[in-house]
LMBRD2 protein (Bos taurus), 346 residues
Amino acid sequence: MSGAALGLEIVFVFFLALFLLHRYGDFKKQHRLVIVGTLLAWYLCFLIVFILPLDVSTTIYNRCKHAAANSSPPEGSNMTGLYATATSVPSQHLCFKPWSYIPDGIMPIFWRVVYWTSQFLTWILLPFMQSYARSGGFSITGKIKTALIENAIYYGTYLLIFGAFLIYVAVNPHLHLEWNQLQTIGIAAANTWGLFLLVLLLGYGLVEIPRSYWNGAKRGYLLMKTYFKAAKLMTEKADAEETLEDVMEEVRKVNESIKYNHPLRKCVDTILKKCPIDYQEKMGRNMDDYEDFDEKHNTYPSEKSLVKLHKQVIYSVQRHRRTQVQWQILLEQAFYLEDVAKKKKK
């Protein structure tokens, strides 16, 4: 079984992450790179949880063997007879090799790959992909440029603090840092930020999760809380619909002003593809087949304004879809609680 448990868990966790991603995501509507990045991030997170017990059991077994080897009597000792037999027999049954034993040299390499891949995903790739998806650019170069600028602003504060620290070390003659020490400082800083978030989220979760289950047993309280959430969500839903209507009105004006032979028509078509289907059909019916844009002295929007409008469309559509899904889930929960309350009265 040496290493077999590790291989089985690696395969099992991969299919578990793939199943959950398929359950909560839509492969048909997402780009392949987005699916691969999300699957890899989920896979590594689950992998740490499942592999850690194997590593702990293997470490305990190796420490037990090391302690038994150090505590065994030397060959030239004077212990003979019954005392030597009594001390040597229990030591043979002291360490039990676990079924999940992993051979030496595998786990250090495994944890290095998992750790540095997770760091790369957390601090570089996933934030870049998020900014790239929310960007309003119409070309790959424009989206990459916007994503780099947004991430540069976000990480500028961290680089400023780290640069100030390096300047302090360079000026101070009593401090000398090498590359390995700088790497250790970077790892410690990343772990400190992660632990800070963990303490905040765990402190909230340890109180809120048990309280939600406790209050969930009170059907009357849960129904009133659902009504309160529904009122709050209805306001957010109405605001999202109003924002979407305003943005769609701007898209309609741009769609009517920029005709099919305009150089920026491709940008308008890209914006239209991000709009809901019913709005696309309305705008398509109101469009003329052809019109020379040079014959009229209309003021056409610039490419920069179209980029801004494209970003607003992406945000408003995502917000509208999110509130619609949340509203449907909350309605189902409210109807269920109302049915339970009516049956209790009967």
